[in-house]
Amino acid sequence: MNRFLTKDFLAGLMFVGFGGLAYIAAFTDLSRYFGQSKLALGTAVRMGPGFVPQMLAFIMMALGAIIAISAVVTGSERIEGGKWKPIVMVTLGVVAFAVLFDPGNVPAIVSWFVPGLARWENPVSGLLPALIALVFLAAAGGDEFKWGETAIMCVALAVLCFVIFKWGLSMNIAMLNGVW
Amino acid sequence: MDILNNLAVGFGTAVTLQNLMYCLIGCLVGTLIGVLPGIGPVATIAMLLPLTFKLPPEAALIMLAGIYYGAAYGGSTTAILVNLPGESSAVVTALDGYKMAQKGRAGAALSIAAVGSFFAGTVGTLLIVMFAKPLTEMAQKFGPSEYCSLMALGLVAAVVLASGSVIKAIAMVFLGLLIGLVGTDVNTGAQRFTFNIPELSDGIDFAPIAMGLFGIAEIIANLEKRASRKVEQTVITSLWPTREEVRQAWPAVLRGTGIGSILGVLPGGGPTLSAFSAYTLEKKMSKRPQDFGTGVVQGVAAPESANNAASQTSFIPMLTLGIPSNAVMALMVGAMIIQGIQPGPEVMTKKPELFWGMIASMWIGNLMLVIINLPLIGIWVKLLRVPYRFLYPSILLFCCIGAYSLQNSTFHVMTVAIFGVIGYIFLKLGCEGAPFLLGLVLGPQMEEYFRRAMLLSRGDATVFVTRPLSAGLLAVTAILLILMALPALRKKREEAFQEDN
Prior knowledge:
The structure holds 2 protein chains of 2 kinds. Chain A is mainly α.
């Protein structure tokens, strides 16, 4: 199994995956499942929208295959394991920021899973809740998380953001939607 | 006389109160992120890009350029004082610079680095002035096939000069090109890879991608390593170098400037590679190579001049041909497009104030860096004491707000999150982000030129080799690729990069 858990082999697979996904999504009958109409290839003189993408998809798959096969044949560096906390918490933090910033985002995501849901707006949205969620989640992803310290950081950053973005650059950002 | 005239136009633009201020802001922000490890110029420029929308194009580009060369400058300050290179281009400076500081020569090392950088920056700026005109004139003869070949050359050269596996880097370029095609096809209006997401029909913005790949992924990697940073303060006694130190430094400055100027122009060259090469050259030239690493003046003077010269000359291909030579230049191209300026040979003739103003501002910016930074060194070092656990949530927050303000849409914030994860996977798999970003930025243009060239030649693909200029460019590309495939050379290259690390 160690032969396959190498950086190069997995990188090769990733490239084949991207190329294959592009090909399947745009040039096969499966394309409608991707919300994508099949792209016409056109001729070499008048290229259609699919000419260059198909070329790139084939090249990607070929390069990926070469990388993966040569990694199995000649061996490559083992992939290092990571910690789950930083990647999960930081990503969650950024996603939470995106979700909480706008009033319409939470309902939109919920409605993906609950079809037929009536339109509504999430009551708490704006820069402040987004900022607090991001900072706490991200800080919890590190090794030295302290509640008090993080709360103070939130306050300081909120003041800084207000001064820079609302006051200094007069950007159209709501600190708390409907309130401020 | 023409050159003097142009420079006068440039200084006329650069020396307005507004532009001087943006130049100063750019230099300060650049120095700041240069000092702080864990955030580089690519992520910062991507982050600040939305803030430049409202500025006039001159001010925006002057500020962004200031961040770039300010970062090269700030990285060396902390490399010398506390052995913490803030930027990869300052890694070699730390070798001898920190040793000099330990010997009590911190002040001398800093001022040699500053003056060497300023000299190199001046030479770099002069080179841009001299080469801008002829290169632009050559570029005006370019048809679509030449542009297509030139971009191929740029992308391949960027791959060859970047460290790491060549074939993986090439695959990354193609992946960038492929993702660059997402959006509405300009010629037919067909939706390509938009997956029914309306926000994607304008294409994926490169700024959130750069923030994810170079900002978020970097933060996650840093959190995994959990590098504890201990900062020891070095006392700076005198900034004046001794006569002996000056005598040793100036030839090294000259050589470093030369190497940096040449490598900066090459795609994929840039400050980091130049600094490494200049250091290696000094070691080879020296009568006492064994002394390197113990605090020799040349070991500071050469790489510092080289990285600054390179950050100046890397503007040449971007300004004259519209071809970015590294990830930062790719973002600059994006910044110009956002401002409604198509980078390329027309910029110089159509927007002379912008073109020459930017060049003049670079010289002014270099001067500012020397004047303001030597007194501010104490403050920069204090900033290093800020623990990383305070730093990274703030960086994340500014990334998110920056991404949002691109189009007042949280869609871009989600893009940042997604490309943060992708960038983390790239890091784990040893795939580099820079070739990907170059491919991404050049992708749409390259396809456009390719299709136009084929249309003009009535579908005859030989047009790329029958037109002499295009054939020449492709020949160089092919030679580069063949050279890389030769086992002997490949080994040499790997050794070279081994030495760097």
